[in-house]
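Sequence only, no structure available. Ideas?
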Amino acid sequence: MDDQQLFDELVRRLNTENGSAEYSPEQGGILLHRFQGQEHDPPFVLHVRPDTLRGHLRTFGDLGELFPDVDHDVAALQMFLVHVVETVDIVVAGTGHYSSERRHLVPDQGGVRSKDGPP
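Reply:
I predicted one. Tokens follow.
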């Protein structure tokens, strides 16, 4: 899978289960208008691009034991999505509601962190 295909797969997965996501080069990432069935206005911004996603996914190392039935790229993508879900849940739970101040989701070594502004 090349970089663009991997990125497209991420966007596709973010659009499943009542999600609404779109890539915005102007915003520097993927806009999550609706995530896990919850509307976000303004949207969360997941700061990844086709040319940066794979490099971040490599920080997860070998995930063969956790996801034995898929190739390395898909396993890392699945783990990345787990971190995105956890980070959004923490941001929403931390305020009792959606916090637009922490809406920027930035890949970090082995995970994702929220920030109050773009990286």
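Residues 3-115 form one domain.
Hope that gets you unstuck.
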